[in-house]
Structures are given as C-alpha cells and as structure tokens.
Amino acid sequence: SSSRPEVASIEPLGQDGLRCSQRALVQARSSQPTRLTAIISAEDTLTGQVLRCDAIVDLIHDIQVVSTTRELYLEDAPLELKIHALDSEGNTFSTLAGLVFDWTVVKDPEANGFSDSDDALRILKFLESTYIPPSYILEMEKVAKQGDTILVSGVRTGSSKLKARLQESIYKDVHPAEVRLFILENILLNPVYDIYLLVGTSVQYRVQKLSQGKIT
C-alpha cells in the first residue's frame, strides 16, 4: 500500500483478482513541481512482518550520458548509452521509464585533430539489433520515440558528439546531456601473440585492418 496514492500509487503484479503479490508496480502520480514522499509498505500475510520504503517523487535537475567507453571501432558491436538523471541534491533517480528523450548526433567543434563529422556515428534501434533492452524501450521504439537508452554504431572514422534532451516541456530549462565519441579503425598487429626474442634477433610485424569481416 501507499501512504499517499496521489504522490505514488502501487499496483500489485500478480494473478488477476488477487490482492496479494510478491511484485508490484510503483508509479509517480504527483504533478506538483516540488519534492514529495510516499511510504510504500508490504505485509507478509503469514508472519505479519511489514516491509517499507520511501518513494521520493521530485523534478529532474540534471542529466548525464553514461557509457562504458568513449571509443568505438568500425565493425565492432554497437555501444549502449544510457541517461542518468539527478535531482537538485545530486541523488540519482531509480528509473526514467516512460520519459521521452531526443537523441541527436551533432558536429564536434573540439575534435582536437580528429575528423569532425556528424555522419561518423549512427543511432540504432534495439528492434534492429540482437540486444534486449527494457520492455518500455521496445514499446517506445514501436511508436517512433526514444527513451533513456539507445545504441550507437560507428560508420566511419572521426569524432562525433551525441546530445540528449528531455522532451517534456516542464524540463525545458534542463541542459542537454552531451558525450563525445571517437570512431577508430579496427587495426590489428600480426602476429598477435607474445613474442620472446633473443638478444640480437628481430621479428617483423605487419599491420592489418579489419573491414567488412575480412582482414586486409
């Protein structure tokens, strides 16, 4: 149950017609531009033990793009990017499910020697890949919307900047999140294994490039 259903409602996720469930969906209901808290509680019908937690509903103050790397290699698997949102106190929101974002690839004015291009990077749909995203992302893609998680793939070498903006009008003053990505050639050294040399001996290395699944 929720102590303040007008702030955060709770819906059991179990068999139809049953009030008891081990899982539940908590949804933010408040539309007020202020920080509000509701107490979510669950009771074990056998032992009477009560579990509780606070559900804090607040406005987003800042967004950031989170990535495992800033470098992509041509011919590599797509890179998954995700948005983290923070409140005014720096706390991270638990979920951004359902929020619509506008992701765009823009030119990078600070390429620092890299070829700057807005066509070096391509945004992919999860529906076009073998990746399995959260179910709400797939539902948003079906209606041509973008959520807090996307895939990107390198098209050609260079540097590109990716920008993400919240579409909700209430967040028009929240600065877009940006991330700079570098797309590099997939270069290999042959031989690829460790070499142990005697003093005075040498070994010849060859540089090879992976292109369209073939080494050239």
UniProtKB/TrEMBL annotation:
<dbReference type="InterPro" id="IPR055097">
    <property type="entry name" value="Ig_NUP210_2nd"/>
</dbReference>
<dbReference type="Pfam" id="PF22963">
    <property type="entry name" value="Ig_NUP210_3rd"/>
</dbReference>
<dbReference type="Pfam" id="PF22967">
    <property type="entry name" value="Ig_NUP210_1st"/>
</dbReference>
<protein>
    <submittedName>
        <fullName>PO210 protein</fullName>
    </submittedName>
</protein>
<feature type="domain" description="NUP210 Ig-like">
    <location>
        <begin position="67"/>
        <end position="176"/>
    </location>
</feature>
<dbReference type="Pfam" id="PF22969">
    <property type="entry name" value="Ig_NUP210_2nd"/>
</dbReference>
<dbReference type="GO" id="GO:0005643">
    <property type="term" value="C:nuclear pore"/>
</dbReference>
<dbReference type="InterPro" id="IPR055096">
    <property type="entry name" value="Ig_NUP210_1st"/>
</dbReference>
<dbReference type="InterPro" id="IPR045197">
    <property type="entry name" value="NUP210-like"/>
</dbReference>
<feature type="domain" description="NUP210 Ig-like">
    <location>
        <begin position="1"/>
        <end position="58"/>
    </location>
</feature>
<feature type="domain" description="NUP210 Ig-like">
    <location>
        <begin position="185"/>
        <end position="216"/>
    </location>
</feature>
<dbReference type="InterPro" id="IPR055098">
    <property type="entry name" value="Ig_NUP210_3rd"/>
</dbReference>
